[in-house]
Amino acid sequence: MSDATLRPISGMDRNKAILAFLARYGTIIGLLAMVLAFSFLSPRAFPTLNNFTNVLNQASLSMIIAGGLTVAVIVGELDLSIGFAASLHGILVVGLVVRFGLPVPLAILAVCLLGALIGLVNGFIVTKMKVNSVIATLGVGTILTGLAFAYSAGMPIVSGVPEAFLQVSLGRWLWGVPNNIVIMALVLGFLWLVVERSRVGQEIQAVGGNPTAAFLSGIDVDRVKTLGFVVSGVCAALTGVLLASRLGSGTPSAADGYLLTAFAAVFLGSATLRDGEFHVFGTFVGALIIAVCFNGLNIFGAPTFSQYILQGAILILAVGLSSLGRVIAER
Question: Does the predicted TM-score (pTM) go above 0.85?
């Protein structure tokens, strides 16, 4: 038997093991603790099938936009335009249906293609013009906000919205499952398969891990980074469409708040099951944590301002856990 086997575990090793465990499973433990606490405090309202369905339904749009952002973050870039883009897409899709009489499927397709185009623009500015992604996407997002207000004259488009468009988000699938949950599951499932189980996903992770090594191995780094922005743009467009369908109107700033929620979900997800690595399943868990927390606050009648405070605190905690996971993984 070797000396290493007989050597007792030191306090430093024990602390490192505890930190590593918390960095990987702290978010899961926190989610389970919240579910148990809310179930105990409100046994008639919280732990019901209807409420859990409502939580997923309310979180579905955040999960979609955060799923697209996850791909951009994996390739090593940040997309700050997604919330502003989603607001613009919501106005545009309603305008195309109401003002121009386009069929609902065609209007949705046109808006999603525009989302891909915006992603291409972001990718071009970052990869070819060498502008930092934070500055580039913030600038693009500001331009999109201006376009949204210009198109709508600062007023929501509310009249003449057809029932067929409302049912895109408010309709239900088999067994009464809301459409938004089904769409979210399909989008995140597809993104997970691409990132985790495809050749393209291997390139995405390689570029995010080490762009120089990826370039030397023959990967077109600029193309992969641009792809990340395109995925993020399409998911933002889809989120804007579903939000406009849910609200029954196109509003200039309706989706702006999704930016912070998406980033909080992505960074919480990086502290889930992996050592500070961004991944689609983790983003789903991160968005679910935020949704459960907000749902519990609403059940107990917490004031609206507390949600903003909590969301900011969650983002700080998420980044801290993600950084801790990376530090532990590098030791």
Answer: yes
Dihedral sign computed on CA atoms, order 120, 138, 263, 52: negative
Token pair for 136 = 């580039």
Sign of CA dihedral 133, 139, 142, 143: negative
Question: What's the maximum distance between 2 C-alpha atoms anywhere in the chain?
Answer: 80
19-68 pLDDT, tens per residue? 777 777 878 888 898 899 999 999 999 999 999 999 999 999 999 999 99
Q: How far apart are CA 148 and CA 134, in angstroms?
A: 21
Is the CB of residue 179 less than 8 Å from the CB of residue 166? no
